[in-house]
Amino acid sequence: MQTDNGYTALLRADHLTVRYPARKARPGRPSRPSVDAVRDVSLAVDAGEILGVVGESGSGKSSLLRCLMLLERPTAGSIRYHGQELTELTPVELSETRQGMQIVFQNPSASLNPDMSVLQIVSEPLQQLRVGSPRERSGLALEALEKVGISASEAHDRPGHFSGGQKQRIAIARAIVVKPDILFADEAVSALDVTVAARVMDLLRALRDRMGFSMVFVAHDLAVVAALCDRIAVMKDGGLQETGKTADILCRPQAEYTRRLLEAARHTELRR
Amino acid sequence: MNKPHPSAATLRRIRAGFHFLLSGSSRLLIFLSVTFLVGEIVLRTEPLRYHVLYEYLLYLGRLLRFDLGANRDGVQILFYLQPALRNSLRLFLVPMVVSLGLAYYIGSRTYIRRSGVIAGAVRRVANFASAVPVYWLALLFFVVAVETGWFPVGNVSAPGADRLPRVARSLNYLHHLALPWASLMLYPVMVLSDRIQTRLRSVSSQNFVKALESRGYRRSTIVHRHLYPVVLSDLLHGFAALVPMLITYLVLVERVFNYPGLGLMTIGQFQGIAPVPDTSVSQAGLTYLGILAILLQTLARGLAAMILPQTTHDTGDGRTKVWRRIVLPAIGVSALLAPALAAAIPWPTMQAQGAGMIPVRLLLLLLSGTTFVSALQRVRAASSAPRLFRGSPQQRNRLWIPVPDPAWIGRVIRTHGRQILGIALLVAAFALLLGAGFMIETPPRSFANPIMAERATGIPWPVAYTQRAIVASRFMLIPLAAALAAVVAGTLAGSIAGYHGLQSADGIADIIETFPSVTVLVMMSAATDRSIMGLLVTLALIGGARMYRRIRFEVEQIRERDYIRYSTLLGSPAATVMFRHVLRNTAPLIAQAGVLVAVDLLILEANMSFLGNFYSLPFEWESFIPVRGWGLMLNETRSLMIRGDMAPALIPAAFLSVAVIIGRALAGAVRGRPQS
To answer: Which residues of chain A make contact with B390, given a CB cutoff of 8 A?
Structure first.
């Protein structure tokens, strides 16, 4: 169980396949053939590493991410986390194992309960994991908020009070408050404008350096992934086209699709 | 990519329409079963002992040939039913068609002109039209007709009108029906106009409309060519939802004008004012009212499905729905084919009373069969859904109770002070209205009778009537108690069904909402021997179904949010997610829907009371709640209004309208979610 770097993998997926079954036509709904959202994907994430998963819309990035967290059961293949096979765990065991995994969603507005204060939102995972007393939990939550640049005076506000970038910071604070081993970011900066996205990426990198967690960063923009990640996995039509260090992917792409993706990214960059 | 053949779209439309036709037919059959079951309980005729299946098929076959049997005097029920049905259709369909046309015109023009004043006026009149009891409006028209003598009342046409030439005959009908039509039209015209303009406005904010406007398209072109195709399906669904209420109004208007239609015939049978009281006839009348509602709804929903097939019945979860895919279509197909089969078989004509032929046991079998299928589906769905209470007992006891912090409360008061003040004032106004009834000394039993009240108290009639109207506000406790039960049951069922994606309770809510509430209430009144508990349970069922639908839809939306996914990912039990996230975010809707349900039940109870004394209070309750509510008081006033004494009718109608308007305003005020 070693990554390309030769280290022991924190999370490893082997021959992962997610198949959505065919759907018959019904009044008001067209038929749909069977679809392989993820097809025979094998990859590994090392401790402290940031793996970027990049590809066009519908390439299976988000399905892969959901599958890695077992939010969706794979049709075939195995997922090992700390060497433990996730697909064989009971629901209770799985929920205990998943405590080291955290996620940041794409839409910051939909990922925060609008009726809870920021402090309550960030305390929620601690409360669920029964960490300390309420006072201690508040302290830890405030500390996490401070790490992402939200002051204690704003901790009692509702999410509606904050901008998109700040909301994403709150979501990151909620994720890091339990000191996770691995953080999954599902298009975490896609909904933000360029400057805010850059600041959020800087924050994620700084947090990773400080706390040492691994990260799987899913995005459709190669430039974003290149700026943040140590390694990149390129996906197309559910399959893995290429995996490698960021510099190798950028300078010596092997797959034709990766070259086209790079060309498109350069073209977009030039137009900017 | 292959372009789909144009006929494929047409085929899809036809299939969608057919699906609704099947579903409508199955509802019809379920309704017939329930009606006759209740009829059987009411009549308590000799139970069937032999050849149950044969008897049932025989009865069904006759029924499908419109052979409803004979009444106790041996006269065919159809003899009574046919003219009444014809009259009711004449009274109902014309204003409905005109209402749709008028609503289309008002709604479209309001949107095209973009006048906030007109839009506001339409909304206010719509609110007013739904707050004022329709029978009160009809009563006013009735008095105008009697006082001025300009309009005839109490019949369809003048005696001997059949011998007049066609044009003169039509004018004669128009003359007789003008006021009942006007009474029936105000509510649907205003409510539908408001709905049309609101829908048009919401769609017009989309970018494709802005693009069309920027290209210089005229607003009327945009509305008719681009917006109506999008909103029409929705509007037809809205109209279908209004149908049961409109049928209830039809019955009320017939009662006010003594119009010889289906409603008057049916209610008259129960009230004993019909020339020939006969329960078989009343049962047939109720059945036909229900059939009318279901057919109109099916027609509207089928049309809506054909217009926009992709928006209907797409649950999108890919699971096979036994109920929707096999049972409903099977029942629907049998209901569609049955008349043809029935016509081909030479059934003997019914000689005995129609309802007496019903094999109750078989109907129970049918109902329990559908319940069994529904239960199977529930088990299947539950096996794939997370359990409500998962985890250790310690976890179960750690359900998180949210406590708002004082700083947030202060900020909310600062930013939403006006809203909170408005809510407080409206609640105070409602409490005052309810409390006023208790400020007057408990009324003596003689208070129930206006003449005796005048004699006993020595107070002049209108004054005594005002007092009675104030005391009658205590009667609101009955619909309010039913509303409370409805809110609790509807919220519980709706949130569980919405969170777990269950659809079992949908069928029950569907059935309750499909039938005109007046038929359900009359049936239950007859079945429970005018028991007040029957009224409470029926009102709670009706309100609960409405509540269930609203909450279920909202919870379904919320459970798809990322913060719910995140909480599930953390391993939170479903009950914790429900309390911590779902119910908390649904609270404003629960408050709003709860108030609206209470208002609806208030109107419903008044409608029932107006139709007659369908419920009796237990003797021990009478010292606390007066025998007569506002609806029944209004019922008494017709003779007084004809004598020119308008005050007695104005007072209870005004009380009822004020209560409804306060309730609606309160529902609007609690809708907004206070946020920092």
So the answer is: 91
Distance from CA of A6 to the nearest CA of B (A): 31
Pair of tokens at residue B404: 């708002």
Q: How many domains, chain A?
A: 1
Query: Which residues 160-219 of A have a C-beta within 8 angstroms of B?
Result: 160-161, 174
3-class DSSP state of B224:
helix
Q: Provide the H-helix boundaries in A83-133.
A: 91-97, 108-111, 118-128
Does the domain formed by B80-277 have CATH 3.50.30.40? no
Tell whether the model's pLDDT for residue B320 goes beyond 50: no
Q: What pLDDT is stored for residue B451 in this prediction?
A: 60
Q: Examine the pLDDT at B190 and tell me if it is beyond 60.
A: yes
Task: Inform me whether the C-beta atom of residue B309 falls under 8 Å from chain A C-beta atoms.
Answer: yes
Whether B571 and chain A come into contact, CB under 8 Å, resolves to yes
The model's pLDDT over A141-168, given as tens digits with 9 standing for 90+, comes to 999 998 888 888 888 888 888 888 889 8
Which residue of chain B comes nearest to A91, CA vs CA? B571
What is the DSSP secondary structure assignment for residue B444, as one 8-state letter? P
| Helix segments in B44-161, DSSP class H | 52-64, 77-113, 116-131, 134-148
Which DSSP helix (H) or strand (E) runs through A218? strand A214-219
A95 neighbors A130 (Cβ within 8 angstroms): no
Judged by CB atoms closer than 8 Å, whether chains meet at B571 and A103 is answered as: no
* A63 inside domain: yes
Q: Do B673 and A115 touch (CB under 8 A)?
A: yes
**ipTM surpassing 0.85:** no
Q: Where are the domains of chain B?
A: 80-277, 407-669
Average pLDDT over residues A182-205: 86
User: What is the span of the domain harbouring residue A100?
Assistant: 9-20+33-271
List, edge to edge, every strand of the sheet that includes A214-219. Answer: A101-104, A182-186, A214-219, A50-54, A231-236, A239-245
Q: Which residues of B, range 362-421, sit inside 8 Å of A by Cβ?
A: 390-391, 400, 402, 405, 407-408
Q: Do B16 and A160 touch (CB under 8 A)?
A: no
Instruction: Name the token pair of B351.
Output: 């000689």
Name the CA dihedral angle for A123, A126, A127, A128, rounded to a multiple of 10 degrees. 120
pLDDT in tens, B636-651: 777 777 676 777 777 8
Yes or no, beta carbons of A105 and B305 under 8 Å apart: no
Exposure class string for B278-290: b at 16+ Cβ within 10 A, else e: bbbbbbbbbbbbb
For A114, which of B318, B567, B675 is closest by C-beta distance? B675
Question: Considering CB atoms only, which of A29, A99, A157 is closest to B314?
Answer: A29
| CATH assignment of the domain containing A206 | 3.40.50.300
For the domain made up of B407-669, give the CATH fold: MetI-like fold (1.10.3720)
Give the whole-angstrom CA distance, residue A70 versus residue B219. 51
Most confident among A7-11, A163-167, B43-47 (mean pLDDT): A163-167
Instruction: Say if A1 falls within a structural domain.
Output: no
